Amino acid sequence: MVYGPDAFWAIQVQNASQVRPADLRALRTFHADFPECTCLLLYRGSERRRIDETWCLPVEGFLRELHPSRGLA
Predict the structure, then answer these.
(1) Can you give the pTM of this predicted structure?
(2) Fewer Cβ atoms within 10 Å of its own Cβ: the N or the C terminal residue of the chain?
């Protein structure tokens, strides 16, 4: 989890090249308790997509674009 004045992210890292519905269970549960958070699932795949309230992002691209002064954009 990353929490600060400008961000509240729940982050799950997965060593898989595809996302299955069961992979999102923990983030869905967390989001139900904290609907204001942005849920991220980082994985080894290449597709950036949103499934329900969770962003599924390739971990390599996420880390390459990560910058402390920017949001998720």
Answers:
(1) 0.84
(2) C
